[in-house]
Amino acid sequence: MSPRLTLYYDVVSPFSWFAFEILSRYRPVWGIEVDFVPFFLGGIMQASENQPPANNAFKARYMIVDLVRTGGLINVPITGFPREFPVSSLRAQRLLTYVKAHEPSKLAPASLALWRAYWGDGNSIDKEDVLVQYLTPVLGAEKTKAYLSTSSSDPATKQKLTQETKRATDIGAFGAPWIVVEREVDGKPVVESFFGSDRFENIAMTLGKPYYGPNPGMGSKLFAFEVLCRYRPLWGLEVDFVPCHLAAIMKVSGYKSPTSSPFTANYLIADLIRTGAAIGVPIKGYPRQFPLNTLKAQHLLTYVKANDPSKLVPATLALWRTYWGDGVSIDKDDVLLPCLTPVLGADKAKAYLAVCESDPATKQKLADETKRATDIGVFGAPWIVVEREVDGKTVLDSFYGSDRFESIAMLIGKPYHGLNPGTGTKL
Asked: What was the pLDDT predicted at 218?
């Protein structure tokens, strides 16, 4: 059985556009079969009880900056949110389902035309005049009118879109794009799912294929802490690692934990283990107590940074290894003490643990750093801020997540060689 990829997408999703473009570029490079499948994102969100990221004001502000920036990296011309956002994509997805069934060679150009209409030019894709304008160059005037007329009412088309949407939810899809990799391992079929447009290095690793960035023809070359530690000497940059309290940030921003939905929780752990393997971080599953209040651990790290700053990195890594590597809760002294003794020494570990939670300066510092984060729009972790000078003025750019290092490298004009730069891995 040769490996096969399926991309479930909806043209209302800009991240689907990114994934569609990148997979189209890699299909000939990897020599792999890719099935592009329109589905209805509105139905997926309802079935999985997921919420659009733009529903949260903090995420919406970040999302548009990240979309424009990532679009620049991938060569996808997104300049902002469409004039009507969000909009129902049901008519557009039925149309694409009809095109795939009756003229499959036109599916890619028709899909790209609708993305350009909505995310490139900001025009609503639920209006017939817009659909006619953008699809006529692809399908011709007569076919465009005929396909539009038929696709909305054709029972077979409606049923097919419903079936593909259900098929996606049955395998755990909770958003778009959703990428499924089917392959054979030891004579048995294995199916793995990837969410988003930022998992192509993981997919390449799964397939045993090279990944050269989103533009393979151009030769561009949780985990955030590890990756930044690896790139700090290569990029010659000052990096400030700042503990903050994630629970407080999520309360202020109104952002819910991704594990609050069983769909996202099931995907998240598979993705964590897989990404951990790619980065060399030993995550085996959810900790035995999850989620967990990290206030004590973050007070401790804040105290370590203030009083023994050279120990901040090894102390932080020790806590991650204990919680995410070994699955042991880090809210108890009997766990924290043996965890930190190899880093701080027995006497300091005891002293720091005794002082950190009651020390007013430490409590205030953690509160200040957490507020500073929410003031610049932080809604989750990790959150990376790049400060640089442009035309004599200080410019701040924010990046959310552990999968934006190629964008950061592009922004600061530095090379990016994948998650493990010392091993020759390429992104």
From this structure: 45
From CA 324, how far away is CA 335, in angstroms rounded? 13
Sheet harboring 33-38: ordered strands across? 33-38, 4-9, 178-185, 188-195
Asked if 312 and 275 touch (Cβ cutoff 8 Å), the reply is: no
Amino acid found at 353: L
Residues near 33 by Cβ (< 8 Å), separated by ≥ 6?
A: 2, 3, 4, 5
Omega cis (within 30) before 382: yes
Q: How far is CA 164 from the centre of its chain?
A: 23
- How many Å apart are CA 127 and CA 97, to the nearest integer? 17
Distances (CA, A) of 392 to 65, 67, 389, 395: 22, 26, 6, 9
Task: Tell me if the pTM is above 0.85.
Answer: no
**Which residues on adjacent β-strands are paired with residue 387?**
396
What pLDDT was estimated at residue 282?
A: 83
Pair type for strands 383-390 and 178-185 = unpaired
d(C-alpha 270, C-alpha 268), whole Å: 6
Q: Residue 197 has which token pair? A: 């447009």
Radius of gyration over alpha carbons of the chain, in Å?
23
CB 140 within 8 A of CB 148: no
Buried b (16+ CB within 10 A) or exposed e, 322-359: bbbbeebbbeeeebbeebbeebbeeebbeebbeebeeb
**Would you say the C-alpha torsion 256, 259, 264, 269 has a positive or negative sign?**
positive
Q: Please identify every stretch of the chain with a pLDDT value under 50, giving residue numbers as ranges.
A: 218-221, 423-427
Which domains are seen in the chain, by residue range?
4-207 (3.40.30.10), 256-369 (3.40.30.10)
Q: Is 222 exposed, middle or buried (0-12, 13-18, 19+ CB in 10 A)?
A: middle
Rounded CA-CA distance 263/170 in Å is 10
Instruction: Determine the Cα–Cα distance for residues 195 and 197; give it in Å rounded to an integer.
Output: 7
**Rounded CA gap, 47 and 412, in Å?**
41
d(CA 302, CA 308): 10
